[in-house]
Protein backbone atom coordinates (compact mmCIF):
# COMPACT_ATOMS: atom_id res chain seq x y z
CA UNK A 1 0.00 0.00 0.00
CA UNK A 2 1.28 3.48 -0.88
CA UNK A 3 2.69 5.50 1.99
CA UNK A 4 0.65 8.54 2.98
CA UNK A 5 2.95 11.55 2.94
CA UNK A 6 0.66 14.50 3.59
CA UNK A 7 -2.10 14.63 6.22
CA UNK A 8 -4.46 17.41 7.29
CA UNK A 9 -5.75 17.20 10.85
CA UNK A 10 -8.94 19.22 11.36
CA UNK A 11 -9.33 20.45 14.95
CA UNK A 12 -6.20 21.13 17.02
CA UNK A 13 -7.63 20.30 20.44
CA UNK A 14 -6.80 17.70 23.07
CA UNK A 15 -6.81 14.92 20.46
CA UNK A 16 -6.14 16.59 17.11
CA UNK A 17 -2.94 18.35 18.13
CA UNK A 18 -1.31 15.28 19.75
CA UNK A 19 -2.28 13.20 16.69
CA UNK A 20 -0.88 15.84 14.32
CA UNK A 21 2.32 16.05 16.37
CA UNK A 22 2.91 12.30 16.60
CA UNK A 23 2.40 11.87 12.83
CA UNK A 24 4.76 14.77 12.14
CA UNK A 25 7.48 13.49 14.47
CA UNK A 26 7.26 10.22 12.55
CA UNK A 27 8.12 12.00 9.30
CA UNK A 28 4.66 12.68 7.83
CA UNK A 29 4.04 16.21 6.52
CA UNK A 30 1.11 17.47 8.61
CA UNK A 31 -1.01 20.59 8.36
CA UNK A 32 -3.18 21.22 11.41
CA UNK A 33 -6.37 23.17 10.78
CA UNK A 34 -8.27 25.12 13.40
CA UNK A 35 -10.89 27.88 13.36
CA UNK A 36 -9.12 29.60 16.25
CA UNK A 37 -6.38 31.92 14.96
CA UNK A 38 -4.70 31.98 18.40
CA UNK A 39 -4.36 28.18 18.35
CA UNK A 40 -2.96 28.30 14.81
CA UNK A 41 -0.46 31.01 15.78
CA UNK A 42 0.60 29.10 18.90
CA UNK A 43 1.22 25.87 16.96
CA UNK A 44 3.14 27.69 14.21
CA UNK A 45 5.32 29.13 16.99
CA UNK A 46 5.92 25.57 18.26
CA UNK A 47 3.73 26.11 21.32
CA UNK A 48 0.85 24.18 22.86
CA UNK A 49 -2.19 26.13 24.07
CA UNK A 50 -3.07 23.63 26.87
CA UNK A 51 -1.30 21.37 29.34
CA UNK A 52 -0.48 17.80 28.29
CA UNK A 53 2.77 16.13 29.38
CA UNK A 54 5.37 15.73 26.57
CA UNK A 55 3.14 17.31 23.92
CA UNK A 56 5.15 20.55 23.95
CA UNK A 57 8.36 18.73 23.04
CA UNK A 58 6.67 16.92 20.15
CA UNK A 59 5.04 20.08 18.74
CA UNK A 60 8.18 22.21 19.08
CA UNK A 61 10.31 19.49 17.46
CA UNK A 62 7.89 18.82 14.59
CA UNK A 63 7.45 22.54 13.80
CA UNK A 64 11.20 23.24 13.88
CA UNK A 65 11.86 20.27 11.53
CA UNK A 66 9.27 21.73 9.14
CA UNK A 67 6.97 18.68 9.36
CA UNK A 68 4.11 20.41 11.21
CA UNK A 69 2.38 23.68 10.40
CA UNK A 70 -1.06 25.08 11.17
CA UNK A 71 -3.63 27.05 9.19
CA UNK A 72 -7.21 28.28 9.44
CA UNK A 73 -8.04 26.86 6.02
CA UNK A 74 -8.11 23.23 4.88
CA UNK A 75 -5.37 22.34 2.37
CA UNK A 76 -5.19 19.51 -0.15
CA UNK A 77 -3.89 16.32 1.45
CA UNK A 78 -3.76 12.56 0.92
CA UNK A 79 -5.55 11.93 4.21
CA UNK A 80 -7.82 14.01 6.45
CA UNK A 81 -8.33 13.32 10.15
CA UNK A 82 -11.33 15.08 11.68
CA UNK A 83 -10.96 15.59 15.44
CA UNK A 84 -13.55 18.24 16.28
CA UNK A 85 -15.93 18.42 19.26
CA UNK A 86 -19.22 16.49 19.29
CA UNK A 87 -21.06 18.00 22.27
CA UNK A 88 -24.62 17.03 23.06
CA UNK A 89 -27.60 19.26 22.43
CA UNK A 90 -30.47 20.20 24.77
CA UNK A 91 -32.20 16.87 24.02
CA UNK A 92 -28.88 15.04 24.61
CA UNK A 93 -28.54 13.96 20.99
CA UNK A 94 -25.15 14.68 19.41
CA UNK A 95 -24.40 18.03 17.80
CA UNK A 96 -22.76 17.13 14.48
CA UNK A 97 -22.40 20.73 13.29
CA UNK A 98 -18.61 20.82 13.90
CA UNK A 99 -18.19 17.64 11.82
CA UNK A 100 -20.31 19.21 9.07
CA UNK A 101 -18.20 22.39 9.17
CA UNK A 102 -15.02 20.29 8.83
CA UNK A 103 -16.61 18.41 5.91
CA UNK A 104 -17.41 21.71 4.16
CA UNK A 105 -13.73 22.64 4.37
CA UNK A 106 -12.55 19.26 3.07
CA UNK A 107 -15.07 18.71 0.24
CA UNK A 108 -13.65 21.21 -2.29
CA UNK A 109 -10.13 19.80 -1.85
CA UNK A 110 -11.01 16.21 -2.76
CA UNK A 111 -9.97 14.63 -6.06
CA UNK A 112 -10.84 10.99 -5.29
CA UNK A 113 -8.61 8.40 -3.62
CA UNK A 114 -8.16 10.36 -0.38
CA UNK A 115 -8.55 8.81 3.05
CA UNK A 116 -11.03 10.59 5.32
CA UNK A 117 -11.04 9.59 9.00
CA UNK A 118 -13.48 10.73 11.65
CA UNK A 119 -11.82 10.55 15.09
CA UNK A 120 -14.34 12.57 17.07
CA UNK A 121 -16.44 10.51 19.47
CA UNK A 122 -19.64 10.06 17.53
CA UNK A 123 -23.12 8.57 17.78
CA UNK A 124 -23.85 5.51 15.65
CA UNK A 125 -24.19 6.59 12.02
CA UNK A 126 -22.12 9.79 12.27
CA UNK A 127 -19.37 8.56 9.93
CA UNK A 128 -21.97 7.70 7.30
CA UNK A 129 -23.58 11.10 7.90
CA UNK A 130 -20.23 12.82 7.30
CA UNK A 131 -19.67 10.80 4.10
CA UNK A 132 -23.17 11.58 2.79
CA UNK A 133 -22.73 15.25 3.70
CA UNK A 134 -19.57 15.35 1.56
CA UNK A 135 -21.17 13.43 -1.31
CA UNK A 136 -24.05 15.95 -1.32
CA UNK A 137 -21.44 18.67 -1.86
CA UNK A 138 -19.42 16.52 -4.29
CA UNK A 139 -21.85 14.34 -6.29
CA UNK A 140 -18.96 13.49 -8.62
CA UNK A 141 -17.42 11.28 -5.88
CA UNK A 142 -18.48 8.04 -4.14
CA UNK A 143 -17.42 5.96 -1.12
CA UNK A 144 -17.22 2.68 -3.03
CA UNK A 145 -16.56 3.49 -6.67
CA UNK A 146 -20.26 3.05 -7.60
CA UNK A 147 -21.28 4.38 -11.04
CA UNK A 148 -17.56 4.63 -11.88
CA UNK A 149 -17.25 7.68 -9.66
CA UNK A 150 -13.85 8.11 -7.96
CA UNK A 151 -14.01 6.83 -4.37
CA UNK A 152 -13.00 8.55 -1.17
CA UNK A 153 -12.07 6.11 1.58
CA UNK A 154 -14.05 6.94 4.74
CA UNK A 155 -13.37 5.43 8.17
CA UNK A 156 -14.00 5.99 11.86
CA UNK A 157 -11.08 5.62 14.23
CA UNK A 158 -12.05 6.70 17.75
CA UNK A 159 -9.36 7.99 20.07
CA UNK A 160 -9.08 6.26 23.44
CA UNK A 161 -6.25 8.15 25.12
CA UNK A 162 -6.41 9.23 28.74
CA UNK A 163 -5.87 12.97 29.34
CA UNK A 164 -2.53 13.32 31.13
CA UNK A 165 -1.11 10.24 29.36
CA UNK A 166 -1.99 11.14 25.78
CA UNK A 167 1.51 10.97 24.24
CA UNK A 168 2.13 7.53 25.77
CA UNK A 169 -1.28 6.04 25.07
CA UNK A 170 -1.34 7.29 21.44
CA UNK A 171 1.59 4.98 20.82
CA UNK A 172 0.80 2.04 23.12
CA UNK A 173 -3.01 1.65 23.07
CA UNK A 174 -4.68 -0.76 20.68
CA UNK A 175 -6.88 1.02 18.12
CA UNK A 176 -10.16 0.22 16.45
CA UNK A 177 -10.54 1.24 12.82
CA UNK A 178 -14.01 1.02 11.28
CA UNK A 179 -14.21 1.46 7.52
CA UNK A 180 -17.23 2.29 5.42
CA UNK A 181 -15.57 -0.20 3.09
CA UNK A 182 -12.89 -2.82 3.86
CA UNK A 183 -10.45 -0.82 1.69
CA UNK A 184 -11.03 2.28 3.81
CA UNK A 185 -10.35 0.30 7.01
CA UNK A 186 -7.12 -1.12 5.59
CA UNK A 187 -5.90 2.27 4.41
CA UNK A 188 -6.66 3.85 7.80
CA UNK A 189 -4.87 0.97 9.55
CA UNK A 190 -1.86 1.68 7.35
CA UNK A 191 -1.83 5.34 8.43
CA UNK A 192 -2.14 4.63 12.18
CA UNK A 193 0.63 2.03 11.93
CA UNK A 194 3.01 4.97 11.36
CA UNK A 195 2.98 5.66 15.11
CA UNK A 196 0.73 3.12 16.86
CA UNK A 197 2.57 0.17 18.37
CA UNK A 198 -0.62 -1.41 19.73
CA UNK A 199 -2.82 -3.80 17.79
CA UNK A 200 -4.92 -2.09 15.10
CA UNK A 201 -8.22 -3.90 14.77
CA UNK A 202 -10.45 -3.39 11.75
CA UNK A 203 -14.26 -3.47 11.65
CA UNK A 204 -17.10 -1.49 10.08
CA UNK A 205 -17.71 2.18 10.89
CA UNK A 206 -20.80 1.83 13.06
CA UNK A 207 -19.25 -0.91 15.23
CA UNK A 208 -16.22 1.30 15.76
CA UNK A 209 -18.51 4.19 16.77
CA UNK A 210 -20.32 1.99 19.27
CA UNK A 211 -17.08 0.49 20.62
CA UNK A 212 -15.91 3.91 21.75
CA UNK A 213 -19.26 4.76 23.36
CA UNK A 214 -19.42 1.38 25.06
CA UNK A 215 -15.94 1.73 26.56
CA UNK A 216 -16.83 5.01 28.24
CA UNK A 217 -20.28 3.74 29.27
CA UNK A 218 -18.67 0.70 30.86
CA UNK A 219 -16.58 3.04 33.00
CA UNK A 220 -19.54 5.29 33.76
CA UNK A 221 -21.66 2.36 34.93
CA UNK A 222 -18.84 1.12 37.17
CA UNK A 223 -18.21 4.56 38.66
CA UNK A 224 -21.97 4.85 39.27
CA UNK A 225 -21.82 1.58 41.21
CA UNK A 226 -19.05 3.02 43.41
CA UNK A 227 -20.93 6.30 43.84
CA UNK A 228 -24.10 4.48 44.81
CA UNK A 229 -22.13 2.43 47.35
CA UNK A 230 -20.81 5.65 48.91
CA UNK A 231 -24.34 6.97 49.42
CA UNK A 232 -25.56 3.62 50.82
CA UNK A 233 -22.50 3.37 53.10
CA UNK A 234 -23.13 6.85 54.46
CA UNK A 235 -26.68 5.87 55.35
CA UNK A 236 -25.50 2.68 57.04
CA UNK A 237 -22.58 4.33 58.87
CA UNK A 238 -19.95 2.31 56.97
CA UNK A 239 -16.58 3.61 55.69
CA UNK A 240 -16.99 3.10 51.92
CA UNK A 241 -13.23 3.13 51.30
CA UNK A 242 -12.66 0.27 53.69
CA UNK A 243 -15.67 -1.53 52.23
CA UNK A 244 -14.34 -1.29 48.66
CA UNK A 245 -10.79 -2.16 49.69
CA UNK A 246 -12.02 -5.32 51.39
CA UNK A 247 -14.42 -6.36 48.61
CA UNK A 248 -11.67 -5.86 46.02
CA UNK A 249 -9.66 -8.65 47.66
CA UNK A 250 -12.08 -11.01 45.92
CA UNK A 251 -10.25 -12.27 42.80
CA UNK A 252 -13.08 -11.31 40.45
CA UNK A 253 -14.21 -8.02 42.04
CA UNK A 254 -12.69 -4.66 41.12
CA UNK A 255 -14.90 -1.80 42.31
CA UNK A 256 -13.85 1.68 41.17
CA UNK A 257 -13.57 4.72 43.45
CA UNK A 258 -16.47 6.96 44.43
CA UNK A 259 -16.07 10.68 43.93
CA UNK A 260 -18.04 13.93 43.79
CA UNK A 261 -19.47 13.00 40.38
CA UNK A 262 -18.13 12.28 36.91
CA UNK A 263 -16.43 15.09 35.04
CA UNK A 264 -14.52 15.57 31.82
CA UNK A 265 -15.86 15.78 28.32
CA UNK A 266 -16.22 12.08 27.53
CA UNK A 267 -17.57 9.76 30.18
CA UNK A 268 -20.40 12.09 31.21
CA UNK A 269 -21.38 12.66 27.55
CA UNK A 270 -20.84 9.51 25.50
CA UNK A 271 -23.37 7.25 27.27
CA UNK A 272 -26.12 9.69 26.28
CA UNK A 273 -25.35 8.98 22.60
CA UNK A 274 -26.26 5.34 23.23
CA UNK A 275 -29.38 6.32 25.17
CA UNK A 276 -30.41 8.64 22.31
CA UNK A 277 -29.92 5.83 19.77
CA UNK A 278 -31.88 3.20 21.77
CA UNK A 279 -33.85 4.97 24.54
CA UNK A 280 -36.11 2.07 25.52
CA UNK A 281 -33.31 -0.44 25.73
CA UNK A 282 -30.61 1.63 27.50
CA UNK A 283 -32.02 1.39 31.03
CA UNK A 284 -28.86 0.60 32.97
CA UNK A 285 -26.75 3.09 31.00
CA UNK A 286 -29.28 5.87 31.59
CA UNK A 287 -29.60 5.10 35.31
CA UNK A 288 -25.82 5.11 35.74
CA UNK A 289 -25.71 8.58 34.20
CA UNK A 290 -28.44 9.74 36.55
CA UNK A 291 -26.66 8.28 39.60
CA UNK A 292 -23.41 10.02 38.67
CA UNK A 293 -25.13 13.29 37.78
CA UNK A 294 -26.89 13.29 41.16
CA UNK A 295 -23.68 12.96 43.17
CA UNK A 296 -22.63 16.66 43.22
CA UNK A 297 -25.98 17.64 44.75
CA UNK A 298 -25.58 14.93 47.39
CA UNK A 299 -22.10 16.24 48.29
CA UNK A 300 -23.48 19.77 48.44
CA UNK A 301 -26.13 18.61 50.92
CA UNK A 302 -23.43 16.99 53.07
CA UNK A 303 -21.66 20.35 53.33
CA UNK A 304 -24.89 22.16 54.18
CA UNK A 305 -25.64 19.59 56.92
CA UNK A 306 -22.13 19.94 58.35
CA UNK A 307 -22.53 23.72 58.54
CA UNK A 308 -25.85 23.53 60.34
CA UNK A 309 -24.07 22.55 63.56
CA UNK A 310 -21.55 25.42 63.26
CA UNK A 311 -21.70 29.17 63.95
CA UNK A 312 -22.58 31.50 61.07
CA UNK A 313 -18.95 32.63 60.83
CA UNK A 314 -17.78 29.12 59.87
CA UNK A 315 -15.91 29.05 56.55
CA UNK A 316 -15.69 26.32 53.93
CA UNK A 317 -12.54 24.96 52.30
CA UNK A 318 -12.98 23.50 48.81
CA UNK A 319 -9.92 21.41 47.86
CA UNK A 320 -9.59 20.91 44.10
CA UNK A 321 -11.54 22.10 41.06
CA UNK A 322 -10.15 19.90 38.27
CA UNK A 323 -12.26 17.02 36.98
CA UNK A 324 -9.69 14.53 38.24
CA UNK A 325 -6.34 14.35 40.02
CA UNK A 326 -3.11 16.07 38.94
CA UNK A 327 -4.40 17.83 35.82
CA UNK A 328 -5.45 21.43 35.12
CA UNK A 329 -8.51 20.43 33.09
CA UNK A 330 -11.63 22.01 34.62
CA UNK A 331 -14.05 20.98 31.87
CA UNK A 332 -17.39 19.65 33.13
CA UNK A 333 -15.89 19.33 36.58
CA UNK A 334 -18.33 18.33 39.33
CA UNK A 335 -16.06 20.22 41.75
CA UNK A 336 -16.89 23.53 40.07
CA UNK A 337 -20.59 22.70 40.12
CA UNK A 338 -20.41 22.01 43.86
CA UNK A 339 -18.35 25.14 44.63
CA UNK A 340 -20.69 27.36 42.60
CA UNK A 341 -23.76 25.87 44.29
CA UNK A 342 -22.21 26.43 47.73
CA UNK A 343 -21.42 30.02 46.82
CA UNK A 344 -24.97 30.63 45.52
CA UNK A 345 -26.83 29.13 48.44
CA UNK A 346 -24.44 30.01 51.28
CA UNK A 347 -23.98 33.62 50.22
CA UNK A 348 -22.98 34.71 53.74
CA UNK A 349 -20.22 32.06 54.08
CA UNK A 350 -16.66 32.39 52.81
CA UNK A 351 -15.68 29.67 50.36
CA UNK A 352 -11.89 29.24 50.30
CA UNK A 353 -11.15 27.45 47.04
CA UNK A 354 -7.76 25.83 46.43
CA UNK A 355 -6.72 24.50 43.02
CA UNK A 356 -2.93 24.31 42.72
CA UNK A 357 -3.07 23.70 38.94
CA UNK A 358 -4.64 27.04 37.98
CA UNK A 359 -3.76 30.64 38.79
CA UNK A 360 -7.23 32.17 38.38
CA UNK A 361 -10.76 31.13 39.24
CA UNK A 362 -12.75 29.72 36.31
CA UNK A 363 -15.48 31.89 34.86
CA UNK A 364 -18.21 30.03 36.82
CA UNK A 365 -16.61 31.15 40.11
CA UNK A 366 -14.84 34.39 39.21
CA UNK A 367 -16.20 37.69 40.51
CA UNK A 368 -18.18 36.16 43.39
CA UNK A 369 -17.68 38.11 46.61
CA UNK A 370 -17.73 35.01 48.85
CA UNK A 371 -15.28 32.91 46.79
CA UNK A 372 -11.50 33.29 46.90
CA UNK A 373 -8.73 31.25 45.27
CA UNK A 374 -6.07 30.57 47.92
CA UNK A 375 -3.31 28.05 48.60
CA UNK A 376 -4.27 24.61 49.85
CA UNK A 377 -2.80 25.28 53.31
CA UNK A 378 -4.54 28.66 53.67
CA UNK A 379 -7.81 27.19 52.50
CA UNK A 380 -7.74 24.51 55.19
CA UNK A 381 -6.38 26.79 57.95
CA UNK A 382 -9.09 29.43 57.42
CA UNK A 383 -11.97 26.97 57.30
CA UNK A 384 -14.11 24.94 59.68
CA UNK A 385 -15.52 22.55 57.09
CA UNK A 386 -13.13 21.03 54.53
CA UNK A 387 -14.55 19.38 51.44
CA UNK A 388 -12.05 17.40 49.36
CA UNK A 389 -13.21 17.27 45.75
CA UNK A 390 -10.02 16.24 43.91
CA UNK A 391 -7.36 13.79 45.07
CA UNK A 392 -4.40 15.83 43.78
CA UNK A 393 -1.05 14.61 45.13
CA UNK A 394 -0.66 17.99 46.89
CA UNK A 395 -3.90 17.34 48.77
CA UNK A 396 -2.99 13.77 49.68
CA UNK A 397 0.34 15.00 51.10
CA UNK A 398 -1.27 17.35 53.64
CA UNK A 399 -0.32 16.58 57.26
CA UNK A 400 -3.08 15.29 59.54
CA UNK A 401 -2.41 18.09 62.11
CA UNK A 402 -3.74 20.65 59.65
CA UNK A 403 -7.22 19.17 59.97
CA UNK A 404 -7.46 19.06 63.78
CA UNK A 405 -10.90 20.15 64.99
CA UNK A 406 -12.34 20.54 61.47
CA UNK A 407 -15.24 18.75 59.87
CA UNK A 408 -13.96 16.87 56.83
CA UNK A 409 -15.98 15.72 53.86
CA UNK A 410 -13.54 13.67 51.82
CA UNK A 411 -15.36 12.73 48.61
CA UNK A 412 -12.27 11.01 47.17
CA UNK A 413 -10.88 9.21 50.19
CA UNK A 414 -7.76 11.29 49.63
CA UNK A 415 -6.80 12.19 53.19
CA UNK A 416 -5.01 9.80 55.42
CA UNK A 417 -5.92 11.07 58.86
CA UNK A 418 -4.46 8.98 61.64
CA UNK A 419 -6.75 10.27 64.37
CA UNK A 420 -10.09 11.17 62.82
CA UNK A 421 -11.46 14.34 64.41
CA UNK A 422 -14.98 15.24 63.52
CA UNK A 423 -14.29 13.38 60.29
CA UNK A 424 -17.18 12.70 58.02
CA UNK A 425 -15.87 10.81 55.02
CA UNK A 426 -18.25 10.32 52.12
N1 LIG B 1 -13.73 8.77 38.28
C1 LIG B 1 -14.26 8.39 39.49
N2 LIG B 1 -13.92 7.18 40.00
C2 LIG B 1 -13.05 6.34 39.38
C3 LIG B 1 -12.51 6.73 38.13
C4 LIG B 1 -12.87 7.96 37.59
O1 LIG B 1 -15.05 9.13 40.11
O2 LIG B 1 -12.76 5.28 39.93
C5 LIG B 1 -14.09 10.08 37.69
C6 LIG B 1 -12.90 11.02 37.52
O3 LIG B 1 -12.62 11.69 38.71
C7 LIG B 1 -13.40 11.94 36.44
C8 LIG B 1 -14.26 11.00 35.57
O4 LIG B 1 -14.56 9.89 36.37
O5 LIG B 1 -14.22 12.97 36.98
C9 LIG B 1 -13.58 10.55 34.30
O6 LIG B 1 -12.22 10.26 34.52
P1 LIG B 1 -11.46 9.01 33.86
O7 LIG B 1 -10.06 9.04 34.31
O8 LIG B 1 -12.20 7.76 34.11
O9 LIG B 1 -11.60 9.25 32.29
P2 LIG B 1 -11.31 10.48 31.28
O10 LIG B 1 -12.59 11.21 31.08
O11 LIG B 1 -10.12 11.26 31.66
O12 LIG B 1 -10.93 9.64 29.95
C10 LIG B 1 -11.84 8.65 29.47
C11 LIG B 1 -11.06 7.35 29.21
N3 LIG B 1 -11.98 6.24 28.97
C12 LIG B 1 -11.90 5.07 29.64
O13 LIG B 1 -11.09 4.87 30.52
C13 LIG B 1 -12.86 4.00 29.24
C14 LIG B 1 -10.12 7.54 28.04
O14 LIG B 1 -9.47 6.30 27.70
C15 LIG B 1 -10.89 8.06 26.83
O15 LIG B 1 -10.04 8.26 25.71
C16 LIG B 1 -11.50 9.39 27.21
O16 LIG B 1 -12.43 9.14 28.28
C17 LIG B 1 -12.20 9.95 25.99
O17 LIG B 1 -11.64 10.88 25.38
O18 LIG B 1 -13.27 9.44 25.62
By oligomeric state, this entry counts as: single chain
Query: What overall form do the CA principal axes indicate?
Result: elongated
Straight-line N-to-C gap:
56 Å
What is the overall pLDDT average?
A: 95
The CATH homologous superfamily of the largest domain is called NAD(P)-binding Rossmann-like Domain
Strand content: 5-15%
In what order do the strands lie side by side in the largest sheet? 3-2-1-4-5-6-7-8
Order of helices and strands: EHEHHEEHEHEHEHEHHHHEHEEHEHE
- Which architecture of the largest domain does the CATH hierarchy give at level 2? 3-Layer(aba) Sandwich
Regions with little confidence, pLDDT below 50 for 5+ residues? none
**Number of DSSP strands?**
13
Number of helices: 14
The level of helicity is 25-40%
Please tell me the total number of domains: 2
SSE class: alpha/beta
CATH topology of the largest domain: Rossmann fold
What can be said about the biggest beta sheet? 8 strands, mixed
Distinct small-molecule ligands in the complex? ligand SAJ
**Integer-rounded radius of gyration:** 24 Å
Structural descriptors:
5-stranded parallel sheet; Rossmann fold; alpha/beta; 426 residues; 13% strand; binds ligand SAJ; 8-stranded mixed sheet
In short:
This protein is of the alpha/beta class and 426 residues long. It is built from 14 helices and 13 strands. The chain has an 8-stranded mixed beta sheet, with helices on both faces. The protein has a 5-stranded parallel beta sheet with strand order 11-10-9-12-13, with helices on both faces.
Model description:
By secondary structure, this protein is of the alpha/beta class. It has 2 domains: 6-207, Rossmann fold, CATH 3.40.50; 244-424, NAD(P)-binding Rossmann-like Domain (Rossmann fold, 3-Layer(aba) Sandwich). The chain contains 14 helices and 13 strands. It has helices spanning 16-25, 37-44, 55-64, 97-106, 126-137, 166-172, 182-192, 205-236, 240-247, 270-277, 283-308, 334-345, 376-382, 393-396; strands at 6-10, 29-33, 68-71, 79-82, 115-118, 153-156, 175-179, 200-204, 316-319, 351-354, 371-373, 385-388, 407-410. An 8-stranded mixed sheet has the order 3-2-1-4-5-6-7-8, with helices on both faces. A 5-stranded parallel sheet has the order 11-10-9-12-13, sandwiched between helices. Helix 1 links the parallel strand 1 (6-10) and strand 2. Helix 1 (16-25) crosses helix 3 (55-64), helix 8 (205-236) packs parallel to helix 11 and helix 10 (270-277) crosses helix 11. The longest helix has 32 residues, at 205-236. It is elongated, with a radius of gyration of 24 Å. The relative contact order is 0.08. The model has no long low-confidence stretch (mean pLDDT 95).
Amino acid sequence: MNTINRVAVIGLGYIGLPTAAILATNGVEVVGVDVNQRTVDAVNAGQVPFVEPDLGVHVAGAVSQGHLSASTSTPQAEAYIVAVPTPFKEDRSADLSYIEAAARGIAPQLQGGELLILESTSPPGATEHMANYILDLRPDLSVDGADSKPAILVAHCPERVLPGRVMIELVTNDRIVGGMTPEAAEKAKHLYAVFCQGEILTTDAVTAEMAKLVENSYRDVNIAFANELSVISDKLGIDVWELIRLANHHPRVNILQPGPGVGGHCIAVDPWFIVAAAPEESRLIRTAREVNDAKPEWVFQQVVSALEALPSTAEVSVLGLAFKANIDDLRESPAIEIAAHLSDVLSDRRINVAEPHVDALPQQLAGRSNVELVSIEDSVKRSDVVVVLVDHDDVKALPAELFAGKTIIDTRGALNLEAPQAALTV
